[in-house]
Amino acid sequence: MIKSPSPTDSASKVVQVDLGDRSYPIFIGSAELSRVNLNTYIQGQKALIVTNDTIASLYLDLVLGSLDEKQVDVVVLPDGERFKNLDHLNWIFTKLIEKKHDRKTTLIALGGGVVGDMAGFAAASYQRGVPFIQIPTTLLAQVDSSVGGKTGVNHALGKNMLGAFHQPRAVVIDLNVLNTLPNKQFAAGMAEVIKYGLITDYDFLQWLETNAQKLLNRDENALAYAIEKSCIDKAMVVSADETEQGMRAILNLGHTFGHAIETFQEYTGFLHGEAVAIGMLMAMEVSVLAGHLVDQDVQRIRSLLEVFSLPSRPPDDMVSTDFTSLMYRDKKVLDGKLRLVLLRALGDAYVEVDSSESLLEKVLISACGS
Amino acid sequence: MIKSPSPTDSASKVVQVDLGDRSYPIFIGSAELSRVNLNTYIQGQKALIVTNDTIASLYLDLVLGSLDEKQVDVVVLPDGERFKNLDHLNWIFTKLIEKKHDRKTTLIALGGGVVGDMAGFAAASYQRGVPFIQIPTTLLAQVDSSVGGKTGVNHALGKNMLGAFHQPRAVVIDLNVLNTLPNKQFAAGMAEVIKYGLITDYDFLQWLETNAQKLLNRDENALAYAIEKSCIDKAMVVSADETEQGMRAILNLGHTFGHAIETFQEYTGFLHGEAVAIGMLMAMEVSVLAGHLVDQDVQRIRSLLEVFSLPSRPPDDMVSTDFTSLMYRDKKVLDGKLRLVLLRALGDAYVEVDSSESLLEKVLISACGS
């Protein structure tokens, strides 16, 4: 389905997500925003770019300049996960209606995961569904949230509680935009890159360990390879299980813990990727207690995460019961049972459907101190 | 696909909506709420009933009593189209999260079109999609909005602008609940019944003319037949074109005009069905100017609508430009062109894709006086 990349080839790449009539290409390269003709993926006479105030000043003109003569409107959202809610989603709807966008309009998400999730959900819901294009501008969005069609917003009581499956028409990943990405955000994206190694791809995990310093220095070839490999791994999982009836859930390694942290901090503390880094280590600790991993495995991944200065411990003010009460609101809870993504081995994740509550409790108490 | 009903047979009926793995039954009968086992259509251990303050006092206990031992929560919305918005949708999400409903929960819409649209859109969006059941309690919801999977909420700037296609698992139509329906609401539902005759079914239109007095008196056999026939006609159109790529649009006869009226009145004036009645007459006037119908056709339908005391003229304070500015926000507008549903003949609707703007303007000026 997907060609295997070579770690030293940095020319433009295309990864195809195979989903029948909802299939689409992911373009990856060092100047894709100049190279890819966006107009190919816009059918009507109107488009709406959704972006945020940080990204607008950097890349909005470049995207606007690349669009043919048509009506292009822009919604600039405030930058941050705490604005990913119904109120701000309504900004997009208001602009679409005010500017008389019809069912043939195309939304363009220009930004990180928050912008992509909101523009995607707006596209899924406006007039019961219009097309959209993803132009992810953070590493995290490039390797994770822009691929696979999950869209949504947060509710005050839980992350990503509202949303839709709605696949984009194309994803355009321009490596150059990472040049303006702050280190903290870059590291958060690396947490999701490392996730792919942990869940399905031990060879990639080893490659990441070997090339961690290169990646930290944002070596272009290394970065291109890591992003392409991540997209290939994600496309494979999504093609096999688009609406998460089964295996797609392994993409959520560490996320049940991570979402609890983010919700506890009301989306103003750790970044999503940082919270996921902490969560992956906690999920690995449960995997150790379940007899699948050994302590050295956890230590090895902790060291890899530390190269990127990612956090490894939950916030000091969180106690174990904060985790459990928030984790039971997770979307993977079914009939009151938590379904945790665990590792059978490094590079081999699965969803634990039998209750592992006592193991979880031990890990939470150990991690939180109470 | 669908068996043909006999006008004198009032026993329970089932109309099947054929949509592959999204197919579902519509149960129609005089005491379906007691007869149909709702539990068959609920898979998990939890359910949430969405209803409104009018219906809750009448039928909530009956539905609650029919559900097996499981966690059943209830959201009571204020009654009225003006509450069909994102703010009130959020009431449903909040309850779902607070009561820890997971992806196996089932939403039950117990109410009219507003409740059905909101519960349906909430079901489409909660955790990216959970099942739901429709129990429509108004004639309009029974013959129209509960069937076909269109769900959504209004935006301050336009009706049904936000939503999703999300099919219910079952529709339960209990004729007894119409006993408590006010005459004005009953008449509004009759407008949509008459619509089916106008768009696809001249025989049914003639039957409606013959039986109008019986229907006005809510004769049970006549009503059962009219509802079943409407559901069959709608199921046929929906099965052929689930997501309105083409012919499904004929179900919107009169709706582009009607939505303009409702939006102009901020959903506090005419009921939806009343606005549709006015709109159908206006669409027929355009059809006369287009050379398809004669004045007598329009007069004939005006007389039929008048049996039910339905309005036939737009609000006095609306001028023609109010219509045009609001109609161009309609979801059927494509590339700036209005696509009106017109009649080739009584019982034969089509979507006019060529511009009929000058004809429309004549009708609007004639109807509004300016």
TrEMBL record, chains A, B:
<feature type="binding site">
    <location>
        <position position="272"/>
    </location>
    <ligand>
        <name>Zn(2+)</name>
    </ligand>
</feature>
<feature type="domain" description="3-dehydroquinate synthase C-terminal">
    <location>
        <begin position="189"/>
        <end position="333"/>
    </location>
</feature>
<feature type="binding site">
    <location>
        <position position="150"/>
    </location>
    <ligand>
        <name>NAD(+)</name>
    </ligand>
</feature>
<dbReference type="InterPro" id="IPR030963">
    <property type="entry name" value="DHQ_synth_fam"/>
</dbReference>
<dbReference type="GO" id="GO:0046872">
    <property type="term" value="F:metal ion binding"/>
</dbReference>
<dbReference type="GO" id="GO:0005737">
    <property type="term" value="C:cytoplasm"/>
</dbReference>
<dbReference type="GO" id="GO:0008652">
    <property type="term" value="P:amino acid biosynthetic process"/>
</dbReference>
<feature type="binding site">
    <location>
        <begin position="113"/>
        <end position="117"/>
    </location>
    <ligand>
        <name>NAD(+)</name>
    </ligand>
</feature>
<protein>
    <recommendedName>
        <fullName>3-dehydroquinate synthase</fullName>
        <ecNumber>4.2.3.4</ecNumber>
    </recommendedName>
</protein>
<feature type="domain" description="3-dehydroquinate synthase N-terminal">
    <location>
        <begin position="75"/>
        <end position="187"/>
    </location>
</feature>
<dbReference type="Pfam" id="PF24621">
    <property type="entry name" value="DHQS_C"/>
</dbReference>
<dbReference type="InterPro" id="IPR050071">
    <property type="entry name" value="Dehydroquinate_synthase"/>
</dbReference>
<keyword id="KW-0456">Lyase</keyword>
<feature type="binding site">
    <location>
        <position position="255"/>
    </location>
    <ligand>
        <name>Zn(2+)</name>
    </ligand>
</feature>
<keyword id="KW-0963">Cytoplasm</keyword>
<keyword id="KW-0547">Nucleotide-binding</keyword>
<dbReference type="GO" id="GO:0009423">
    <property type="term" value="P:chorismate biosynthetic process"/>
</dbReference>
<keyword id="KW-0479">Metal-binding</keyword>
<keyword id="KW-0862">Zinc</keyword>
<comment type="pathway">
    <text>Metabolic intermediate biosynthesis; chorismate biosynthesis; chorismate from D-erythrose 4-phosphate and phosphoenolpyruvate: step 2/7.</text>
</comment>
<keyword id="KW-0170">Cobalt</keyword>
<dbReference type="GO" id="GO:0003856">
    <property type="term" value="F:3-dehydroquinate synthase activity"/>
</dbReference>
<dbReference type="InterPro" id="IPR030960">
    <property type="entry name" value="DHQS/DOIS_N"/>
</dbReference>
<keyword id="KW-0520">NAD</keyword>
<dbReference type="InterPro" id="IPR016037">
    <property type="entry name" value="DHQ_synth_AroB"/>
</dbReference>
<comment type="similarity">
    <text>Belongs to the sugar phosphate cyclases superfamily. Dehydroquinate synthase family.</text>
</comment>
<feature type="binding site">
    <location>
        <position position="192"/>
    </location>
    <ligand>
        <name>Zn(2+)</name>
    </ligand>
</feature>
<dbReference type="InterPro" id="IPR056179">
    <property type="entry name" value="DHQS_C"/>
</dbReference>
<feature type="binding site">
    <location>
        <begin position="137"/>
        <end position="138"/>
    </location>
    <ligand>
        <name>NAD(+)</name>
    </ligand>
</feature>
<feature type="binding site">
    <location>
        <position position="159"/>
    </location>
    <ligand>
        <name>NAD(+)</name>
    </ligand>
</feature>
<keyword id="KW-0057">Aromatic amino acid biosynthesis</keyword>
<keyword id="KW-0028">Amino-acid biosynthesis</keyword>
<dbReference type="Pfam" id="PF01761">
    <property type="entry name" value="DHQ_synthase"/>
</dbReference>
<dbReference type="GO" id="GO:0009073">
    <property type="term" value="P:aromatic amino acid family biosynthetic process"/>
</dbReference>
<feature type="binding site">
    <location>
        <begin position="79"/>
        <end position="84"/>
    </location>
    <ligand>
        <name>NAD(+)</name>
    </ligand>
</feature>
<comment type="function">
    <text>Catalyzes the conversion of 3-deoxy-D-arabino-heptulosonate 7-phosphate (DAHP) to dehydroquinate (DHQ).</text>
</comment>
<dbReference type="GO" id="GO:0000166">
    <property type="term" value="F:nucleotide binding"/>
</dbReference>
